[in-house]
UniProtKB/TrEMBL annotation:
<comment type="similarity">
    <text>Belongs to the NAD(P)-dependent epimerase/dehydratase family. dTDP-glucose dehydratase subfamily.</text>
</comment>
<dbReference type="GO" id="GO:0008460">
    <property type="term" value="F:dTDP-glucose 4,6-dehydratase activity"/>
</dbReference>
<dbReference type="Pfam" id="PF16363">
    <property type="entry name" value="GDP_Man_Dehyd"/>
</dbReference>
<dbReference type="InterPro" id="IPR005888">
    <property type="entry name" value="dTDP_Gluc_deHydtase"/>
</dbReference>
<dbReference type="InterPro" id="IPR036291">
    <property type="entry name" value="NAD(P)-bd_dom_sf"/>
</dbReference>
<feature type="domain" description="NAD(P)-binding">
    <location>
        <begin position="3"/>
        <end position="323"/>
    </location>
</feature>
<keyword id="KW-0520">NAD</keyword>
<protein>
    <recommendedName>
        <fullName>dTDP-glucose 4,6-dehydratase</fullName>
        <ecNumber>4.2.1.46</ecNumber>
    </recommendedName>
</protein>
<keyword id="KW-0456">Lyase</keyword>
<dbReference type="InterPro" id="IPR016040">
    <property type="entry name" value="NAD(P)-bd_dom"/>
</dbReference>
Length: 351
């Protein structure tokens, strides 16, 4: 039995799909079901005895303590977070509450449970914290990619809150001996990606005939990884990672934002040509830049490759094609997530 937090979100739900495709070990998904949490992402497991959804907050010590005591998991994998940089700029409060205080409470609840275990179970237990490459700050064009030894230089409220959570996880290992693992991953994309993030936003805006907003000059660089490759990496770190270590995870697929958007347009021109034969590229619109926008992220994933034998299976081309096809094939999912709160966010961010 494992407990996953934030499993109704983008990466967590893809992780649960990957887990249950490869294992019969049951999963409990503890999720607060914020705007980003969508039980529909896991609806195929509704009547699967291996899967249980519990609605709750990682900061609720009573709930988490009782879940741990009742189910005696061998691992907790922490995906739960506020994850969108632009939202952290408009309103950082929730980021501090969940990403910092929430992780602190989750660590304390886990430590309380871990202390009750016998020596063998204690040694085998793992707390895996899922984090981001944004903790390392921004790279110049000629800088080498981020390694695990890079100093932390977070620039956005989101990145700072994740950096703080990483430090807490580290301290709970060094001070209390909690068997932790931390992963720092680059930008993910794939199915179930909430359309506030660049790739799903652009796919859906293109199909709706809306503007494709590019912040600033569009020359910012991100290192893209297909989400199911990330899920496999987390499974590998859980099984083989060395306690107390951190592992960078990335796809070695650096792209400028403008080229990502142009590639999406080119695929859509083929898969869903516009009636007037014009290109979706015509919808590209340069808009005001994100404040404090990090220029470049890139991951050196050699440690996880050489020590744990993980490598991505998808290239950006192959992963992006599957992703676009998934959005074309799932209009119902799209219709459900683009109502209500989503519309208010789009209005606030893009006017
Ligand atoms: P997401 O926003 O799609 O999902 C977050 C999930 O956490 C949602 O289901 C939400 O309901 C849940 N949640 C939020 N606050 C909670 C709380 N207090 N208690 C319990 N559940 C709560 O995020 P994501 O993109 O799937 O990211 C998952 C994790 O991976 C995050 O920790 C993020 O920092 C990290 N990460 C994301 C990326 C990326 O490209 N998306 C890359 C690297 C790392
Ligand atoms: O690097 C990992 C991080 O990747 C994760 O930790 C975050 O949770 C995740 O949201 C993501 O952060 P980014 O800020 O890089 O992702 P986003 O999709 O918001 O933006 C990708 C790039 O595209 C970024 O340079 C900003 C730009 N952008 C984004 C949006 C939403 C635009 O140009 N226009 C847009 O409308």
């Amino acid at each position: 039995m494992i407990i996953v937090t934030g499993g109704a979100g983008f990466i967590g739900s893809n992780f649960i799909h990957t887990w249950l495709a490869n294992s019969d070990e049951p999963v409990i998904n503890l999720d607060k079901l914020t705007y980003a949490g969508n039980p529909e992402n896991l609806s195929i497991f509704q009547s699967d005895s291996r899967y249980t959804l519990v609605r709750g907050d990682i900061g609720d010590r009573q709930l988490v303590g009782s879940l741990l005591a009742t189910h005696q998991p061998r691992a907790v994998i922490n995906f739960a977070a506020e994850s969108h940089v632009d939202r952290s700029i408009h309103g950082p409060d929730e980021f501090i509450t969940t990403n910092i205080n929430g992780t602190f409470h989750l660590l304390e609840s886990t430590r309380g449970f871990w202390d009750t275990l016998n020596q063998e179970a204690k040694q085998n237990f793992r707390f895996l914290h899922v984090s981001t490459d944004e903790v390392y700050g921004s790279l110049n064009p000629d800088d080498p990619p981020f390694r695990e030894t890079n100093p932390y230089e977070p620039n956005s409220p989101y990145a700072a809150s994740k950096a703080a959570s990483d430090h807490l996880v580290r301290a709970w290992h060094h001070t209390y001996g909690l068997p932790v693992l931390t992963t720092n991953c680059s930008n993910n994309y794939g199915p179930y990606h909430f359309p506030e993030k660049l790739i799903p936003l652009v796919i859906l805006n293109a199909l709706a005939g809306k503007a494709l907003p590019i912040y600033g000059d569009g020359q910012q660089v991100r290192d893209w990884l297909y989400v199911r490759d990330h899920a496999r990496a987390i499974m590998r770190v859980l099984e083989r990672g060395q306690v107390g270590q951190t592992y960078n995870i990335g796809g070695n697929q650096e792209k400028t934002n403008l080229s990502v958007v142009q590639t999406i347009c080119a695929h859509l021109d083929q898969l869903r040509p516009k009636p007037d034969q014009s290109s979706y590229r015509d919808q590209i619109t340069f808009v005001q830049d994100r404040p404090g926008h990090d220029r470049r992220y890139a991951i050196d994933a050699n440690k996880i490759k050489h020590e744990l034998g993980w490598e991505p299976e998808e290239t950006f081309e192959s992963g992006l094609k599957q992703t676009i096809q998934w959005y074309l094939d799932n209009p119902q999912w799209v219709a459900h997530v683009t109502s209500g709160e989503y519309r208010q966010w789009v209005q606030k961010q893009y006017g």
